[in-house]
Structure formats: C-alpha cells, structure tokens
Specification:
Layout lengths: L1 H22 L4 H31 L14 E11 L3 H25 L9 H7 E11 L3 E10 L1 H8 L11 E3 L2 E4 L2 E3 L6 H7 L10 E2 L7 H4 L10 H11 L3 E11 L6 E9 L4 E10 L5 H21 L17 H10 L17 E10 L2 H12 L4 E8 L4 E10 L2 H10 L2 E6 L2 E6 L12
Organism: Sphingobium xenophagum
Protein name: Heavy-metal-associated domain-containing protein
Length: about 450
C-alpha cells in the first residue's frame, strides 16, 4: 500500500515538473538552438580564416619573370662620361661611344686581342639589337652611365667569323637557393639571388636553363627543402612538369661582417638530385649596396662552372630520371611489319645497289670525347667518304650522317669489324661498342 502511494506521488511530481517547464518563457530546445548559432558563426569564421591563410600562401609576389634571352652577343660594363651642349646630345653621344667601345671589347673577347675592324657608327648601329642601362646619371650638359650593349648574332657573327651553332646541354631546371641570416630560401619568397638569375642572359651560354617565373605552384613545388630530397620518383614528376631533363642548384651564401658593412658571398654550383658538387667561388662586396652586383657576378661565375663541367663530361643527365614510356605491342608489330624486306624479282632493292649512299648512324655520346672518337672510328672504315654529327645529344644518343660507297651490309660489316654491335633498320644503323669479355677467374683446387 505504501509503495502504491509512493508511485502515485512520483507520477504527480513528474506531471507538475512538465507543467512548470511548459510555463517557462523559453523552451529548452530553443535555448539549444540559440546557443548553437554563435557556435556555427564562429565555425564559419574559422573556416574562412583557414581558407584565407591557404590562399595567402599561394598568392603574392613570389617570383620574378626571367628576361627573354636570345642568342645575341652581350657586352656589359661599358662606362661612358660625355659632355655636350645639352642633356639629349650628351646621352646620344654617350650611347654612340658605348657602342664603339663594346664593338672593340667584343672583338677582343672573340679573337683574343688584336685591333678590331674600323666600322662607322651607322654600321655598328645596324648590328646593335639593344642597350641596357645598368647605371645612369644625366645632367644639363653631362652624361655618365654604365651600359650593356647587345649585338645581333646573325649580323655580327659574319664579321666575327663565329658560327651560330653551339653545343647545348639538355634542358636543366634551375632552383637557386639563397642562404642569408641562417635560413635558406628559393622560390618561397622573392629574394635577390632569384632576381640575379632572372635577369641573367643565358642566350650566349651552352647550358639550356629552364627558369620559372614564380607562378602559383612554383613557391610550393620549388623550395629550398626540395633540393635535399634524393627520391627519384618525385623528381621525375617535377622535371616532367617543367620539361627538364635534370636540375641544377646554384647556391649563394651571404655572410655579413656587421650591419651596413662588407658582405662575403660564397657561390656553389651543384646539380642533380644527389646534389653533386661542381665547384665554388668566393666574392666580396664592400657594403650592402654592392650585393646585387656581386650576385650578378656570382651567377656568371656559376654559369662558367657549369659550362666547363659540360665540356669535360661531368655535367650529364641522370639516367634514373628518364621516364620510359610503355611499349605498345600493336604499334611495335606495325613497325616491325614496315621494316620487313619484301623480295622482288624484277626491281633491285636500294640495299643491294652499290654506289654512294647516305646513312644515319645512332651512337652513344656520354661526353665530348666520345663524339670525335665515334666519328674517327667510322671514317676509318674503307668506303666512307664523310662522317659528321648532325644531331648532338650530349649524355644521350646522337646521330651521325655518313656517306658510304657501298651497301648497308658492307657498312655493317665494317662497323662490326671495329668492335660495334650493329642493328639495322632501313638506312639507319644503331651501333653500341661491345664490351670486352671479363677474364674467367682460375678455379681453385
């Protein structure tokens, strides 16, 4: 009986509590919804701030577009100091004087001294393609400047006797790294070392540099930390993205004696995912205002190091960075079908007809010496009239055009007699130097 009374009392209490809550001026569900609205607003603001931070990381002035570098001859550091009746006349006379000085400097550089041919101002102006102003001060009657003169290669090369064809390296991606104040930076933010490489004229260099403009993806992909990675997989994707065969890493390290004082720059030339060392040089600027000029000189010195490394065979693309396309069996079957020799009874084939014929020989050229060695070996074959490299790919496979008195079988036999493994496809031959067999070690009793 007591339990029944207690149960009824509990039910009455619950009903009374429910009625009390219903009489309240607000509902608990509405209270929860009211509290959740500020939380939702704060969450939306937080998401917006995160998105803004990510966008700020991508945008902004991150890089400097490189200048267009053609094949013109460049003469820098031409200093003039001219006085005339007015400012315009002084500037015009200064530019003409700079062109004459630059012509003499260019002749001395390409011929190792001697007097340059005497040309009139109009003839020199016809060869000049541009004038760069490195430093300029103009007064009412005086003009003082340091200029750079660009000569058109096609018009100037005829007088200089310089051929327009030069040996070039495969395309190499440039990632300049600057160490200043204990931290390294590349394309993450704009820096003076990046500007030096952007304004450096590479048209007269034997290195085919791939310089980026610092677009949206460059500050994220081309960082100073990327140069320390050794994995080939990501490097393959990165180089394929920029159309390069390998990477060069010019490094500049600035050491400041004290604020506003002398600055010592150590410039190091490295290349490849393994960060291999090419060479280094140390330069010095008297104060902070001379750092930009020192960096320009450092870029020029590093370019010379890369050119020397290319000539002596040290700067070669890494074969592990080459992405090999899968072979299509159907395309291979079609290619083999086209190479099949069709026997005819009426007409003689070109391969069986003797006489002077032209053949293309593909051969490996890992360094500069292999080019002349390959040409000399082919010229030594009886019946070869001429042999010259028509397509040069240093570090890869080059093509040699050969004029031969005989058939392709005779040329193949001559190459095999000189230690080459030869494969023939029409008038194209692929040769590979046979390796000497290794001696068999004596058996131990």
């Amino acid at each position: 009986m007591a339990l029944g009374i207690l149960g009824k009392s509990r039910q009455k209490a619950l009903v009374s509590l429910s009625q009390t809550l219903n009489r309240l001026p607000f509902q608990p569900g509405a209270l929860l919804r009211a509290v959740s609205r500020p939380v939702q607003i704060l969450l939306a603001i937080a998401i917006g701030l995160i998105a803004a931070a990510l966008f700020a990381q991508m945008e902004g002035e991150r890089g400097v577009p490189p200048i267009a570098s053609g094949g013109d001859f460049e003469v820098r550091g031409v200093k003039v100091d001219v006085v005339a009746k007015d400012a315009d006349s002084a500037r015009y006379a200064g530019w003409r004087m700079a062109q004459r000085q630059a012509w003499r400097m260019l002749w001395t550089r390409t011929h190792g001294g001697g007097g340059a041919p005497a040309l009139s101002d109009s003839q020199i102006e016809a060869m000049v393609s541009g004038i760069e102003i490195d430093f300029e001060q103009a007064g009412p009657t005086r003009y003082v400047a340091t200029l750079g003169i660009l000569f058109d290669r096609a018009r100037t090369g005829q007088l200089l006797g310089v051929s327009g064809n030069v040996m070039r390296s495969p395309p190499l991606l440039v990632i300049p790294v600057l160490w200043d104040g204990g931290s390294a930076v590349s394309y993450e933010r704009t820096n003076e070392w990046q500007k030096a490489w952007a304004r450096y004229r590479t048209g007269d260099s034997a290195i085919d540099y791939v310089r980026v403009a610092g677009s949206v993806a460059d500050p994220i992909l081309l960082t100073a930390g990327q140069t320390g990675r050794r994995g080939r997989l990501w490097w393959r994707v990165l180089l394929d993205q920029y159309g390069a065969a390998d990477v060069v890493i010019p490094i500049a390290r600035l050491d400041r004696a004290y604020p506003g004082g002398p600055v010592t720059g150590t410039f190091t030339a490295r290349y490849g995912p393994d960060n291999s060392l090419i060479g280094s040089v140390t330069l010095r600027a008297s104060n902070a205002s001379g750092v930009a000029q020192m960096l320009d000189e450092g870029a020029r010195r590093i370019d010379e190091m890369y050119i020397r490394a290319l000539n002596d065979g040290r700067l070669r693309p890494d074969p592990s960075l080459i992405i090999e396309e899968p072979v299509d069996p159907d395309a291979l079957a079609i290619e083999n079908a086209t190479d099949t020799v069709i026997e005819t009874d009426d007409l003689p084939t070109a391969a069986s007809t003797s006489g002077t014929s032209s053949f293309a020989i593909q051969f490996d050229t890992p360094d500069v010496g292999s080019i002349s060695a390959g040409e000399s070996a082919v010229r030594a074959i009886p019946g070869v009239r001429s042999a010259s490299t028509s397509s040069l790919a240093l570090g890869g496979t080059s093509v040699m055009q050969v004029s031969f008195d005989g058939t392709v079988d005779m040329l193949r036999n001559g190459l095999q007699a000189r230690g080459y493994t030869v494969s023939v496809s029409g008038t194209t031959l692929r040769i590979v130097r046979r390796q000497a067999p290794q001696p068999t070690p004596p058996s131990q009793q």
